[in-house]
Amino acid sequence: MAPTTADRKRKAVTRDVPEVSDPESEAEFGDGLLEGILSQSEDEQVDSEEDDEEDDDEDELDEIEALDSDEIPSDGPESEVEESNGSLKKSNGVKANSVEELLSPSTLEEEERPNYTITTDANGGERYVYDEIDPVYDSDDSDAPATTNTIGNIPLTFYDSYPHIGYDINGKKIMRPAKGEALDALLDSIDVPKGWTGLTDPATGKPLNLSQDELEILRRIQTNELPEEGYDPYPATVEYFTGIEEIMPLSAAPEPKRRFLPSKHEAKRIMKIVRAIREGRILPYRPPEEQEEQEEEIHYDIWQDEQPRPDNIMNIPAPKMAPPGYDLSYNPPPEYLPTKAEKQAWESADPEDREKEYLPTRHDSLRKVPGYEKFIKERFERSLDLYLAPRVRKNRLNIDPASLLPKLPRPEELKPFPTVCSTLFRGHDGRVRSLAIDPSGIWLASGGDDGTVRVWELLTGRQIWSAKIGDDEAVNVVRWRPGKDAVILSAAAGEDIYLLMPPLTDPETEAASRELLDAGFGYATNATQALTANGARKEPVAKWSRPGSRLEDEGVLIKITVRTTVKVISWHRRGDFFSTVSPTAQKSAVAIHTLSKHLTQIPFRRLPGIPQTVQFHPSRPLFFVATQRTIRSYDLQKQELVKIIQPGARWISSFDIHPGGDNLIVGSYDRRLLWHDLDLSTRPYKTMRFHSKAIRAVKYHKGGFPLFADASDDGSLQIFHGKVVSDMMENATIVPVKVLKGHKVKSALGVMDVDWHPREPWCVSAGADGTCRLWM
Amino acid sequence: MGKIKKKGVSGQAKNFITRTQAVRKLQISLPDFRKLCIWKGIYPREPRNKKKASKSATASTTFYYTKDIQYLLHEPLLQKFREQKALEKKISKALGRGDAHDAQRLERNASRPEKTGKTKYTLDHVIRERYPTFIDALRDLDDCLSMLFLFANLPSTPTVPAKMIARCERLCLEFQHYLIVSNSLRKSFLSIKGIYYQATIQGQDILWLVPYKFNQRVTGDVDFRIMGTFVEFYHTLLGFVNFRLYTSIGLVYPPKFDKTRDDQGAELGAFALEANGVGAIEQPKQIENGESAKPDPKLQAEIDKLMSQLNESEKEPETSQTLPEEEGDEEEQTTDMIDKFEPAAPGGDILPQPSYSATDPSTLFSNFTFFLSRETPRQPLEFILRAFGCKRIGWDAVLGEGAYTHNELDPSITHQVVDRPPIQATQESNEEEEGGDNQTSQKLKAGARVPGRIYIQPQWVWDSVNDEELKRPDLYAPGAQLPPHLSPFVKKVRGQYDPSAPLNEQEREDEELEADSDIEDDPDVSDEHDMAVQKPKLLTHEEVDATAEGMDVAGSEEDEPSENEDAGSFGGFSDAEEEDDEATSTALQRQRELEAELTGVALEEKEIDPRAKAKVDARKKAAKKAKEEDEELERAKMMMSRKKRKIMEKMVYSNKKKDAEAELLRAKRRKIEKSGKGVPRV
């Protein structure tokens, strides 16, 4: 028995921590489940006893609390208790069980037992070990506080490495409440008990759960009720001082005498007034109305010291009423009288829709004129207008509309311009893609889908010469070399550019031309090839070669092969350089070829957009490149960008530079023809949209006539008069003069190209219908 | 980056304020705000961008300048309004308490302008503010006078108290007196709405409208409170203007007003003007209806006999009788008049000419004595005659007090204004027998005429005044069809229809011919009426015997080549169609000739043709010209900017509308002239 007691004593010391620190958790021990296991100690008995009491209390209190206490045991303390029980079992072994069996009946009759046990101390003497005093309701220190941690303001983390978390008021260690295992935590998270906050009470180190009361308070606050139940915020007023008038006066004093006697003071004052009235010092009251009635308003010269003051700028004086016209007369001229139809129309119209609010009527004498029944109404409306109508200053242009019209030259002054088709050039199979009149103005070269280049006599329409250069490719462009010293025609079919020498003139010129063309062969071979990065010889951008004997016999002298299809050829005015555009090539889209050296250069590493066409400036070393949206002009000498012209078109098809060099026309696939004044702005000076289909080509007359033409897919050419004055102050005058129709539209293509005669006001056009036309 | 601008603190958002905001800012009621706006001349403005100006999402309709409203904040009237409002509150509170005595006492302090016609406040300072100079006030007098003259003629109602009307009447009469004394009335016009008057005071033209003396029809949709507010302001304005006008010509203001005479309907005569420090100005004395006034019984008998003789054809002798005298008058008038320069040929500019003859308006009627028959409107006639110098005006006693004489038979009367149709004397005599005893000795029998005076209809007075010359009285004789009464206010604009000018002066070239061909003139319309249609005929005639009249022929010859020239130049750049057309027509003609030759019939068509040919020519030419012009216009328009084109289209539209109106009027007139029903024009 002794060891057990000693054991128990020791136990009791260790055990009482959970007991004391968490009396509620002990309540769980009262549960039937655990009782059989752990009730070997007396403490247990006490506990159970206490438990009973508590149960009693609970009965007295509401059931919710009981529920609460039931819930709590599911937490960590239980397992922790089990743990400690486990250790306890190890030490005690079976004995504990027997003790428990022994003691279990005693719990029932605890009253008879002393409140201490006798143990032997270290010396073997007796030692009384008293039970813990249970602070039940009757006990003396019933209002002793529950055990609290006395460590003060020290963080709990300091005790992390210890089994306890502090000391109670008795200096006893408060043992750390056991933590649940991961599985328990999981279980807890699955069914969160009511009142669970997930917080740890810093005072106890236990999970902080809310009691039913607290929950109830929270609920009430949430629903905007008063937190405390049964609290009446508006209690009936307790009438401390009564509001009910007492019938009987509290004072029993008799009425003073003065209330019954006339006041001498008042009599004195009244006598004073009476005397004053008698003496006439005070006049008796007379109603003032009559005097006011007679009062006349006073007039004076309000403008005596008038000073003219200028009106505020924002002030708009009210407009005067319009003076009456003839039709308002009581006896108007008969032509002002409405006819029957007019009268009817006026009467049937809505009063608001009527142009005049009156109907002219004729009275043959003044005595027959009736009163005007809308007189007051009109005056009223006028007054409304005066104060209610917003006034706006409106500028009325009182000028002749003709003065607004631009001064256009008379049609006679605009002449000459091409009006009729005089020659028709037939011979091409399929479309004629391009055509050009040679610098002498006698020959016309054309190239088309059939791969041939043909030269015609301009006036007669006779075909002089033809050469088939493109085997299965269309001739995209033909251009003559400028200058009359030689007769050289350039044409492009596919990737090849050919320089042709049609046998048209005398042998001297021919020889000169041949010499010009062949002069460059030496340079081409000598030219060193640039090396690429990996040391390989860079492929030349273009290959200058002889086209083969067959073509050579026909007059085709040089063939230049570039990488992709060439669409545009443009010659420099001196005739040594020409530029080609092959829009599909990315880097080498624009190439400049030097005829005298058989050299091909790529001036632009990179271009913003797909280049469409290029032009050399007619007098200055400028080079214009048109991409889809913009036209850029570059200075070739300084090698820099000079200007970016933005016509605003979606897709530029072609452009041409005025021989004066300061103006530009741009044709676009979105049907616009734009005139740019380069000095004025980068934006168009005029936009003309007279075509119903895309514009393919635009061209200025270069021989002194102020004309330009555009060719469109709608099968028509439009001729404009565009006069440019050297005076900077005056803008160019543009007058549309003629629409030339004649080409048939084939597969949505009409006129493909247009060119002017170098001297005469004639133009030629290439049609998709396989013909060329001369207009003069 | 600059400072980010806050919304609604600058620009339009700040410059404009909606009406609701304004009312709220001033803390007054909407009616009071309206009053303030009317008096102070504050009117809404149209912001350039309504969305920017209004701060709220809903579209506000009325905007004021914030500065205008701010300027109202310092208005002394605002304080008066507030005081009034407070007083009203006190009264209603007293009444609510059942304290009738207190309410009555307070009521005595309240001004009830609708009852007393008196207000607690004056608008003097507002007048001074709005019109810094007298000229400014005169400039704004049009509406003031129209309104006051209207109110002077209104019946009194609860909304329009009698006092207000009486005051309007007095002010108007005072103003009329000034015009009479200063002779500043210039023009007047009888319209279907009322009578327009124009006066020129210190170089300012003032035009106002006076209704005819009828009971005005008051419709429900007229708010007399608004009108009353205006009238209140105009009272003050016209009072001060009258004061200034009277003192400027040395008269005492206000003139003495004779209540009893006014009650008898003396109107203008109820006022006695006084010169400063001199005393009353002498008015021509009223003639007693004594013996001297009686006409010579012998002469009267003779005239009666003559009248009965000439009963059937009475008008002609009447005019012939009056004419010589009148002509004498006219010659007297015309001696020192400026000659009127009429353009002899169309196309020249019209130079401005002084519109007034050298004769003073004060002397136009100064030598005459008028008598107004009882059916004539007395007030306007009296006013206008007096304003143009007439000193002696008599009228029937029915028309009220203040006449020079009530005796119709007064021998001094030179003109009698009559507005009744001449009655057959035979019927009249019967009637006279029946009711003979009713007539007083002074009254003539209805159809009778007093010898030695001119009988005229009222329009004569107005036309004479407007043209500054005495019109021929025979045109205005009683019962005669009056010439049209034309507005003197219309400014003649070139290209607009002018009813006073002959038709063929103002119509376009060939318009007539075109119109003729359009209308398909009736065969019965005789050529005599149609002057212009005769013209081509005349031309051909002249060409035939060219030697007869040198001048005219030369003129016509000059005309012809120029036209040809025109035609040639048109052909120069026009399409070939026209020429073709002509060619075919000549070919046709030739063909016809050949046929005629074959058949042997003389080709008389050509003989008859000229008119038809002229017509066709005119039409063709016009068509050609129109086409040319259209082409040219189209080309020019193509090169215009869109904005300019829009402006131009607007202008062309309005011009065309005007032209169409004028053309319609011309066409109507042509038709009327052709039908021979035209009225005499002066």
Rg of chain A, Cα atoms, Å? 60 Å
Percentage of residues assigned to helices of chain A: 10-25%
Mean pLDDT rating of chain B: 75
Low-confidence stretches of chain A: 1-110
Question: Could you explain how this protein is built, in words?
Answer:
The complex is a heterodimer of chains A (776) and B (682). Chain A is of the alpha+beta class and 776 residues long. Chain A has a domain at 411-526 and 537-775: YVTN repeat-like/Quinoprotein amine dehydrogenase (Methylamine Dehydrogenase, Chain H). Chain A is built from 17 helices and 35 strands. In chain A, a hairpin with a 5-residue loop joins strand 10 (452-457) and strand 11. In chain A, helix 1 crosses helix 2. The radius of gyration of chain A is 60 Å and the shape is flat. Chain B starts with 11 loop residues before the first helix and ends in a 7-residue tail after the last helix. Among the domains of chain B are: 123-272, no CATH class; 361-421 and 449-488, BRCT domain (Rossmann fold, 3-Layer(aba) Sandwich); 490-510 and 611-681, no CATH class. In chain B, the strands form 5 sheets. Chain B has a 4-stranded parallel β-sheet. Chain B has 682 residues and is of the alpha/beta class. In chain B, helix 18 (425-434) links the parallel strand 12 (415-417) and strand 13 (454-456). The longest helix of chain B is centred in the last third of the chain and has 34 residues, at 642-675. In chain B, helix 3 (30-40) runs parallel beside helix 13, helix 6 runs antiparallel to helix 7 (100-109) and helix 12 (162-182) packs parallel to helix 17 (378-387). Chain B is built from 27 helices and 13 strands. Chain B has helices spanning 12-15, 19-26, 30-40, 50-53, 66-73, 76-97, 100-109, 113-116, 124-130, 134-139, 141-152, 162-182, 224-248, 259-263, 297-309, 315-334, 378-387, 425-434, 458-467, 503-506, 511-519, 531-544, 550-573, 576-599, 605-608, 610-638, 642-675, and strands spanning 16-18, 63-65, 185-190, 195-201, 204-210, 256-257, 271-272, 274-275, 279-280, 369-372, 392-395, 415-417, 454-456. The chains are: A alpha+beta (776), B alpha/beta (682).
